């Protein structure tokens, strides 16, 4: 029952301005309030669950306990506005502006090229700003830690860290050729004919940071600190928020509302209500109750009020650890180690330690530590107080505890450890930073005085049951035993039995989780053995072989360093000619200030409505009925739209094999059935969730394997064959067969799909603002559905917050539905998908299965290859045939194979349709190629780099599709990479390291890439441009490409600037639209700079020809003089340009022609270190040499290389889409789907652009750069495989083994076979139904 209370006024400050809200709704987040109510769109919605940091803002408040003003970063997407009473909020708009001045935090990020699409940028700016408000001279490690809760999909993180390194007191980087000795990276290039630079930005240009000039804390809030706390109540549409004034009031409220949720940080309840459709009518906010926020020391340990934030817990424990003897603080050190990797800084700043306990998550990072340490919990209610020791009876079931409904958790006492008592905690996750645990544990042992005989022991695990559990039987058996090898063996046998999992266990990874319980104990055993030897000063250290010591080391990663080398512009090039110079992204300054406008940032139109999609919950089923009656009764409901509302065609899709709305059958989970239109986004989504769909289920096909068994393919397979494959196998010394599975990948652009449709009221005209890479296709899809000609539909694209191929085709079905809603209601309609919807509906990179048979000679020379590619296309064809085509063209990677047959099958399954993704099938194909190449090296007993070098193409060779390779620079890239990476020297060092280490192994690999540049569909290789010159001399430039962060607009301005001979400051690009440049291809295939650059050049030449008479008559005149003269003479100052790529076209039937205009080449060398016990890996170093021709903009090109590499790093080592056997996607947000974070990049990350090799086939001798570098991250994958091989050798296993992609911790650990894995054998396939399947 909702309490009858009056609603209070909510008072807080935003960017120094007072906000008084009289109708505060507890369900409204700060993010929504900022964007919708205050018109501050700089703070972005990236995920809605606190996992990406795009919504980061700074909160400032006076802390009564510490008696000072606190500044801390938070996720605005989770913070309820009701939690902000008497606080100050600072957003990105509040610290600097292009209209006034940029704050140093903003300026340095922009000028260091740390912003590409710019969508994550405001959050990164605010994380850094908050750090500097607390510490104006941070250490580099503190800067890195500040970004643990921020993600970026574009940059690869290096330029962000490089720019912000200038704030660090210990910052250092490339010397910029100031060093005089030969160790300087730039001196090593002295033989090059062209000068080289490593300076992408000049720190001397940065304005200094002056902490005294920051905005002050609002005096009104400072004065209110002496006002007694009073109870506050805020009533929303469905929820009442009560903030009690003291503990007694809190207890009375909890007794009255037993089901009420206590909320401090809203990091759990906020997500449950938003994403799990849960409703809590009463929320009690105890964050300001002194008894719940205090910290006090006792004889037994340290007590924390249950509402203390995790950041506060960490600060207190860090201080105590420095003050007390180490033996007393072992539990504290374990808590700190877990907090290192606990969520992001924004979450730790608000999440309460009590909340972490009471949510009772079975994969809690802290509960195993608290359980194993015997921490004491104090509960209080109106009936009194009680204290219990946390033990295995506390958790009574999944997310349940023994706490009574009227009780609240008052405090947690974390105990000191005693002498001869040892404690450790371990956690393994998919990603090191900001990730939930796969398995986590706390381990405690107490020895009898003066001995190494176990007196007491607690081993607690999370992730091994529905609750946090104690290994009671194991511990009982080990008490009284000596801490020696026999105990270790006994413990492993006992744990293997006690901690076993059902093969169908939720979360999957059963074998891995099982093994981790033993691995963690082994680490604990060695750690204790080490400490015992120090404490007892006995011979025990002799029992720890030197090569085992590394198993006891905690995860540590050095601060990153990097070098970027590029060719300087020729001597004498005009300063106004920016081609070849590292020009800042044209929108960077706007992006760092939150002023860059993305689709959902547009102000709301009058009478605007919102749309929410209704989607299928079944992968394959007949639609029996759709009941919208309950939805119609929901507040704000306007209408339901479905197939019946379409005036034109419901059939859609690139190959007309899809529908706008499902009619009779649904063919995937996420298939769009209808849409709810309502007055707000929240009302639309709530109504959509209560639409009831009745299904008659059909049998789905989910995996590639199922498709092969049932012969479920789209059309006949495609094949390319050259030479005589059978004869090649006859001539081969060895023939080898194998297969590899390459997992799919979610695009995870930070800006989810968004569209706004505005009906114009006459002639069927409609204007759409869409986040799309393909405005022409969006126009066509909408026109077909509405039944109007293309010329009635205008599609506009200002910019996108990332695309990567994901907004090439799949977004256009979605934008069609928004247009239909606008058509039906005759009002503007907006829809921005939530992250979970976007991930569910839009598909991603195609999973591939490669099966190969390869023949080769004893020296490793390949003589024959027969390879078959299978791709999981999903429920429609979309671009899957083109993806398969490119995969077949790249089946050779960079290797000459005289006899080859490649065949491709596109599998039809009941998954959301997979689509374009950076690389477009080639990364999968090339990984398959490198897989058999590495197997050849192992079989021949030869170094992999020698076998690869032996098989590389050479200048003038023909590919397997009979295209001659001209301007083949790969051999140069290879040699330069070998040299710059010091490959051979480091390989010897790695061999020595591996000889000395048993449980840490290093690996190294050098991998080439050859990437064809052009659309393989010839008609798409065209582009148009429109250039207007105004009478003041300013130029408005429009072309067919869209800006998604890749710097296309910046490069096009540089091209026009050189072509016209005017400064870039005179040229502006506003947007891409179908009513300026029609019939455009998608911005894809890495060709947009080539195509649009040449079209712009063509238009500029037309204008120059028209201006030539006026330039000739007044050669010393200015640009403005010539323009004015032409205007007066009535000469057109507007020109179109057009370009089509010459000489391309290919026939599969004849295997002849040129599918590509030219190729981009690159080589990468990477070194990794794996933890054989846990599957963790560290990327130690990467060196890349990339041929980009003559770079149009080295900063943008290097940024594309680094960003593509890190995205590929995710593809090959980290990102895993997990589906149920029924086709339901589990991984629908950053909580479960992990893209690379700041800590995942290589510690040393060097990029060099190949010099002195202009490309005659593209604008100003440049080359495409967006996609080609992505595959180079396979060097990480094969370095990992190299390290695993060494680990397996120590277990007596040599020869070939299969490693599928991605090389996750699970796959790495399971491949490092040892005595522990042998105790945890997997269940027999087919004897159980797995939690997830590989699609």
Please provide a written account of the structure:
With 1335 residues, this protein is of the alpha+beta class. The chain folds into 5 domains: 10-226, Beta-grasp domain (Ubiquitin-like (UB roll)); 294-552, Uridine Diphospho-n-acetylenolpyruvylglucosamine Reductase, domain 3 (2-Layer Sandwich); 599-699 and 747-841, Aldehyde Oxidoreductase, domain 3 (Alpha-Beta Complex); 848-1015 and 1150-1303, Aldehyde oxidase/xanthine dehydrogenase, molybdopterin binding domain (Aldehyde Oxidoreductase, domain 4), CATH 3.30.365; 1022-1080 and 1088-1140, Aldehyde Oxidoreductase, domain 4, CATH 3.30.365. Helices cover 29% and strands 22% of the residues. Strands 25-29-23-36-33-34-35-44 form an 8-stranded mixed sheet, sandwiched between helices. A 6-stranded mixed sheet has the order 6-22-50-49-48-40, with helices on both faces. α17 (510-536) crosses α36 (1305-1311). The protein is globular, with a radius of gyration of 31 Å. The chain starts with 9 loop residues before the first strand and ends in a 17-residue tail after the last helix. FAD binds at residues 262-269, 342, 365, 409, 427. Its main location: other.
Q: Calculate Rg over CA atoms.
A: 31 Å
Strand order of the largest sheet: 25-29-23-36-33-34-35-44
By CATH, the architecture of the largest domain is named 2-Layer Sandwich
CATH topology of the largest domain: Aldehyde Oxidoreductase, domain 4
- Structural class, by secondary structure, is alpha+beta
What is the CATH class name of the largest domain? Alpha Beta
Estimate the strand proportion.
15-25%
Helix count from the secondary structure assignment: 37
**Which spans have pLDDT < 50 for at least 5 consecutive residues?**
188-192
DSSP strand count: 50
